[in-house]
Specification:
The chain is mainly alpha-helical. The chain has helices at residues 9-38, 40-67, 76-102, 110-134. The two termini are 33 Å apart.
Length: 168
């Protein structure tokens, strides 16, 4: 028997794939613009800004995809929220470490780093919105109805119900 899957999994995978493509494009564009604006330090700043944004934005979707592997388990909800919360705590710790490492480095041009970071976050948000708008997800996606597929509908066609009306 195959394990049950969550209906949001294809959406998250698609968002990660398109975010990876956009990140690759932003790395190239950021390197060129960074070089034109500030030379070699601009290239390093743009690349690090784009990579920091990509890593932090990818951790959330990846943690949800990892947590969804336990779908159907009786402890799915605590496992899911534990993994997602752990991902957020990891992002907070990594953000503080990245700021301490990058602060005061000679090769970091703060303006280029900031613009690359903001553009990358905005591009990732656009990717998320486009993916969400184009993917189809039913309103009630992971709900099981209380019917027995072996028996079908409990009323047979043509039979009358208790109140005398014809059955469906």
């Amino acid at each position: 028997m195959t394990p049950p899957t969550v209906s949001s999994t294809p959406i998250l995978r698609t968002a990660l794939v398109f975010s990876g493509i956009v990140t690759a494009v932003l790395l190239v564009v950021g390197a060129v613009v960074g070089f034109l604006v500030a030379g070699a330090p601009g290239v390093g700043s743009a690349l690090s800004g784009v990579l920091v944004a990509a890593i932090f934005l990818g951790i959330t979707a990846a943690s949800i995809l990892i947590a969804n592997r336990w779908f159907g388990d009786p402890l799915y909800v605590p496992i899911f929220f534990g993994i997602v919360l752990g991902g957020w705590i990891l992002k907070l710790v990594l953000f503080i470490v990245a700021l301490f490492i990058l602060r005061g480095q000679d090769w970091v041009e703060p303006g280029v780093f900031f613009v690359a970071l903001v553009v990358s976050v905005m591009a990732s948000l656009v990717v998320d919105v486009v993916v969400m708008m184009r993917m189809r997800l039913p309103n009630v996606s992971d709900t099981r109805l209380p019917t027995d597929p072996e028996e079908g509908d409990r009323r047979s066609r043509g039979a009358e119900t208790n109140d005398g009306t014809p059955g469906v």
